[in-house]
Amino acid sequence: MLFFLVPVASxxxxxxxxxxxxxxxxxxxxxxQMIKIAGNIRKGASAYLKRQYSGVALFxxxxxxxxxxxxxxxxxxxxxxxxxSDFVPFAFLTGGFFSGLSGFFGMKIxxxxxxxxxxxxxxxxxxxxxxxxxxxSVMGFTVVGLGLLDISIxxxxxxYAFGLGLQETTACMxxxxxxxxxxxxxxxxxGGIFTKAADVGADLVGKVEAGIPEDDPRNxxxxxxxxxxxxxxVAGMGADxxxxxxxxxxxxxxxxxxxxxSVPDLQMGGVVLPLIIxxxxxxxxxxxxVLVRTGxxxxxxxxxxxxxxxxxxxxxxxxxxxxxxxWFLLGWQNIGFYFSILSxxxxxxxIGFYTEYATSDSYKPTKKLADTSxxxxxxxxxxxxxxxxxxxxxxxxVIGVAVLAAFTFGGGFFSAIPGVPAASSGLYGIALAxxxxxxxxGITLATDAYGPVADNAGGIAEMAGLEAxxxxxxxxxxxxxxxxxxxxxxxxxxxxxxxxxxxxxAYTDRIKELIASANNLDFSTQLEKVEEIFDKTxxxxxxxxxxxxxxxxxxxxxxxxxxxxxxSVGRAAQAIVVEVRRQFKxxxxxxxxxxxxxxxxxxxxxxxxxxxxxxxxxxxxxxxxVATGLLLGVxxxxxxxxxxxxxxxLLAIFMANAGGAWDNAKKYIEAGNLGGKGGSNHxxxxxxxxxxxxxxDTSGPSINILIKLLSMVSIVFAGLVLAFNAIxxxxxxxxx
Amino acid sequence: MLFFLVPVASxxxxxxxxxxxxxxxxxxxxxxQMIKIAGNIRKGASAYLKRQYSGVALFxxxxxxxxxxxxxxxxxxxxxxxxxSDFVPFAFLTGGFFSGLSGFFGMKIxxxxxxxxxxxxxxxxxxxxxxxxxxxSVMGFTVVGLGLLDISIxxxxxxYAFGLGLQETTACMxxxxxxxxxxxxxxxxxGGIFTKAADVGADLVGKVEAGIPEDDPRNxxxxxxxxxxxxxxVAGMGADxxxxxxxxxxxxxxxxxxxxxSVPDLQMGGVVLPLIIxxxxxxxxxxxxVLVRTGxxxxxxxxxxxxxxxxxxxxxxxxxxxxxxxWFLLGWQNIGFYFSILSxxxxxxxIGFYTEYATSDSYKPTKKLADTSxxxxxxxxxxxxxxxxxxxxxxxxVIGVAVLAAFTFGGGFFSAIPGVPAASSGLYGIALAxxxxxxxxGITLATDAYGPVADNAGGIAEMAGLEAxxxxxxxxxxxxxxxxxxxxxxxxxxxxxxxxxxxxxAYTDRIKELIASANNLDFSTQLEKVEEIFDKTxxxxxxxxxxxxxxxxxxxxxxxxxxxxxxSVGRAAQAIVVEVRRQFKxxxxxxxxxxxxxxxxxxxxxxxxxxxxxxxxxxxxxxxxVATGLLLGVxxxxxxxxxxxxxxxLLAIFMANAGGAWDNAKKYIEAGNLGGKGGSNHxxxxxxxxxxxxxxDTSGPSINILIKLLSMVSIVFAGLVLAFNAIxxxxxxxxx
Lengths: 736, 736
Fold this sequence. Notes:
By secondary structure, chain A is mostly helical. Chain A is 83% helix and 0% strand. In chain A, helix 5 (166-210) packs across helix 18 (599-613).
């Protein structure tokens, strides 16, 4: 019955978001020009999302038909695809729908809050923070609210309305995770291409060739650039974190079911635990959000303190509350799982701190990187790549320790459960660690998502010709956002790695279920026999060449994916460059400020490019694991998932940190160091920043989604791969 | 008795090399100024190697003492390190010694051949090719000659003089592989840092700031730059390929022993097979080398044809000869192993072709990359990184297919051996594939190593103020070398991946041996029992978190290693920049050509920097697997090795191809395309080339050595890790 707290918390989060949104809408929007500019941005962003959603709708339709045929085929017996249940196609659909909705609401409020933030900054920095942070909270609570809503609906529907067993229910719910991840990948990739193409294109012609400042209204790509912040950094991030949040919860639910198969009481507790942690997390995030308030002083340090007060409060209290939740739901003898959760939380915090150290210009690495600009663009590029590659060390060690700790505590250390294999409950511990990391997403996302709003506000202030101090204030908000965002990134990357590992375990569990049903064994009572068949059939050892080849293929995927998305940004930016150059040449009076640029054309161009370019990388995530499965079977898929998780984790950190450090090295020089803005060092730093743009805002964050989507796709198509794959045919042929 | 062909072939190769060297020395050295310049280069290179070898000697001394203590401790019983035998310290030493010697001889002849090549180019292109290619052959045959010599000496010594068993003999021989790899890593990293620091430093001040052409004698770093070609591209490459050659042979010998444990006849055949393939390869390489001759026409295409005639002849004939060798040594029923060898050979050829496609300016990818220079340095950097990341796809697929084919053919497909587990003989098949790839190293290395000689000849021609057509001819030779080198790179990278996989298998075999001796079991007759204990003790499944964490750590190592080496190049180049700037400022008359630069200071500076900077990355390869083993035990080490092999393979290809493509995009523009030399596109391309320098000549090729050295270190320290590691202590504590 505890479960019913979930829809309640979900509704509460959504109401909280609506209330915050209403508060923002009450604020004045500013001067006529601000209203006009904001209207243009809003229009562009809506047009983009509309087009993106119609493109993605086509993809979802195709998948729906494909999954439908598989379900139909299984039922009528003309196909053998072992689909989890007939609800799979619909679950897939709602996952995508809610993920898209999270992005949509986030973007809606962000495009209404940008001019209001700029306007509030005309009064004081503090007022600006309040509006921007409110917009961030709307996004944060929309994501967690919709996430818990989707989970509630499906859980209640499958379990109570359609009477599915717990195991089938949780397995089926992974399908809506797959829908959410697919949507998130499209949103992140498409939005990331849009925003960086507009940014790079605007900079290359505007700043470098025409010599006009950033956000100058004479630049034809300036509206597109501001639209990009909303569709990439807001809508993309919303869909992305919806996927992470839901993914961590459903994977731990699924692992609880298989770990505690033989202990029904514990099983229910294990399934409910991640949900209740999320519920408490929502409550604490709300309190934390309310705590973010300052006096009327405008000191930046105090603002940071105010933000940190909110996030620290939620993190510390959830760390304490989880202890009692585990005690209550799993019993004192299983208190080890609490330490699994705690190790996840700590790992997230540590990676966040380290991310800040590696990329903030307050610390040595980025300062040193800025120094390399003295010898030109080549050395700052080499330095940034080296910095990014070096920065994987600490996160790998932290995640490594967290994984082993979460597994050990879950798998027998203070949590010995008779009849439960240590390995299964240990893997559940790893999944719980990810849940711990993301439990207070409501508030961490709020501190993350207000940055792009402030960024946009700055653009509007510039374009509307507001006083210089307004821009200064929005810049202060923006840079504050960069600091708090580092922590958010730590949680996002760390949880992605842990959830991906949990999902690999969920994949092998799914294979075991299929074995059980193929051999007419009862999964809960005859588990040992199932395990025996599994071990005899599959050799998951690293020494098995099939696993190794899968590992190579998996390790390759993030590289290919990054290459595709970077090339996409390059091509799309090239198109913008040509268009902006054309407008400067053909529209007379544009440079003098007497004629207006054709902003809409640049927006349309970015939209079209992003839509076209996002298709191939996104399909890669669907096709690669299925194709590998059909060729190399289950062993190859497990290798692929492990390889993709390891390299994906590394590449995501490398790209995010290299990009972040280049960005901040440029800002450090712009702040007056090493010759300041306009000097040759600054020029070199701008090259670094431009290279870093697709690193940190397109390729890097998408990889986090990729590694989870690969596992979910593998789980959904597990039956198909098991029924048919080439390597088994070869083996059948030569092993008599 | 067939074994005695090995020392015979070894001596023949060395005599061939000496004869070729004598032929080169007979050629005239050119004008007085050429003699003087060449003398300076030679002096600088010798000084560097002397310093490098004394630095490395210290490392070898420390390792010798460490291994000595371990051997002594095992014998007296006060330590339990399970060292393979008392010969380990000495074997380690000779491996390093011969590897260093290969580099030394290669460099000696290269620094005598450079001015002679330049002088020959004054007559004709064809004559120049002959001298340069002879120098390359000296290096090629020295490497294979010394490699087979070292193998012969140790094999005969251990087996016949000291009466060790076959198993102990081959295991002990892996130690000299470790010595060779350590030396190679030092040589590649140190030489790579030297050459790129000098190159980047000379370019940044000379070309960019002072505006003087490349190889201009007024540039104080110009001699250091030319010394760099010799110590990096020649001495480094020699040590590197010595390591690859020896590594592939000894790993397949070791795997033959364990695979055919129960069939003594086959066991001997399996051990001898890789050696005899190498013997035939030496013979064919000699014939191939002799075939490289042209008429007096100077058409570049015909020269390429002449070179290809030599390599193609050797490759095709070895592909045929191997069939009969397998038939003769392993019998008709095991002819499957021939197809293992063939799949390795084919994979090497395919990766070589693809490398050329991806990086040569005759094809689309590099042409497109050159196009991205139009929008400045940032876009060509993004484009090159994307090109490099994209270029991993084909090699991964090719190696994946080769691994599965070699394993399948070796493990039962046309090679079913009663009593031999398919997995063991399949892994031997993978090792043979690497041997196949490297069998004709004598000639492939010759076509690879003559490039730097031609490069140096060009530098001398420039500095000595020879006629413009001489420089044109040396440039033609140099660019020809780039084309043939692509094939060489394919073999080097492909064989590294296959050998690394074979060495992982050798590692688990070593653990099994240790288990056998600890349980007083006879490894050859009670293999099944040993396997049983192994399977019960270790869970090598990818689903085991210890393996997974090891995988993450291993995957991380190439990233960290690349970061270290790139930073080293950056720091060392910075020091050169400061020194060159100082000389331009302080030496009056330098720019006017009336005073001479202090070349020696730049050489000394590069030497010191390279020596200092090579220590940490090289130690990483020794310390990381031992430390991981002491913490995570055998399971962690296996994960580490698999992860490092997969990511290392990917990063090595990515970095080599990105660097190669940037280099050729720059050359493409210099050839008059896209605005030609000096234009803004060219400037952007120079930035790309500078970033690519440490990619392709320092970090990339060193990673190939790294992944093998990690396995060899693990094998040598296997006993220590088995006797003591933290994770077993934890397990003992909580698993009652």
